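Thread: S-adenosylmethionine complex, take 2
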Amino acid sequence: MTKGASGFEEFYAGMYGERWPRLREALLLPKKHVAVVNPFSKYSFPEQAVRLTGLSFEHDVRDSFLPPEKTDSGYLNYYLLDAASILPVEALGLVPGEKVVDLCAAPGGKSLLCAFKLKNQGLLVSNDRSAARRARIHRIFDDYLPKTEQKNLTVTAHDASKWGLYQKSIYDKVLLDAPCSSERHVLEDPKELSLWAPGRTKAIAISQFAMLAAGLDIVKVGGTIVYSTCALSQLENDDIIRKLHQKRPGRFELIRPEFAFGEPTEFGWQVLPDTTGWGPFYLSVVRRLR
Ligand SMILES: C[S@@+](CC[C@H](N)C(=O)[O-])C[C@H]1O[C@@H](n2cnc3c(N)ncnc32)[C@H](O)[C@@H]1O
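Output below.
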């Protein structure tokens, strides 16, 4: 198969068919954001704030926001992210007291939302292999959370794909927001696009599967794993869950998430910007059975 920009077109047009031209156009539009309020900043949005159905965090939606700023509390007022990026945290259904690991946590947006949910009770392990990116997790925690609210938070530096060798059946919930092809960024960057090759998504999918398999080992029986990516390539989305069915039969069941925006897929849920203005984002929810 062809490499570079023409190979990219061929690959994704083959995957998304007639939808691809609209999807491609939507991927190149400026990104919208949701601002999630930091409960420790004592900031709130006005009554006329735009809310999205199904999000349990206080938030506002606009085409553009001023960068977050510190309130008198000393903490930043809100965290900006794509609405679809909130869905994996919603899907985890966290309650205070649970033991949670965010296997690929940096820069830390989803870990921050997990911390809001856990309310300093239980344990949140925010892991990332990159030292530079781990520094960003620490910075986000310090910018948004009082030190007294960070007692249940730990930042670690493991290779997520090998975690199952060291710990087993430990966590109530596992978030695997996996490194992925991030095609939106590839499409925006002519140099990245010229370097694109189909082997890349295949290689990434191999390491994503290894991390998900590790996740299944470290979550408790009855516990939940949320697998997510911002990839368009199905090799990194439903195909990863298909492979889990093939390689770990009987060890898990799928929980079918449903949200107010996006669409169901064979094994999960996908949010694409041509229909929703958000994403691309994919998630699948798995419960360990044995
Ligand atoms: C999609 S980003 C995570 C974004 C993050 N969940 C958030 O919401 O801010 C993927 C992260 O995985 C990390 N990573 C890549 N390979 C890893 C591995 N084998 N083990 C642990 N972390 C890894 C990267 O450094 C990167 O920060």
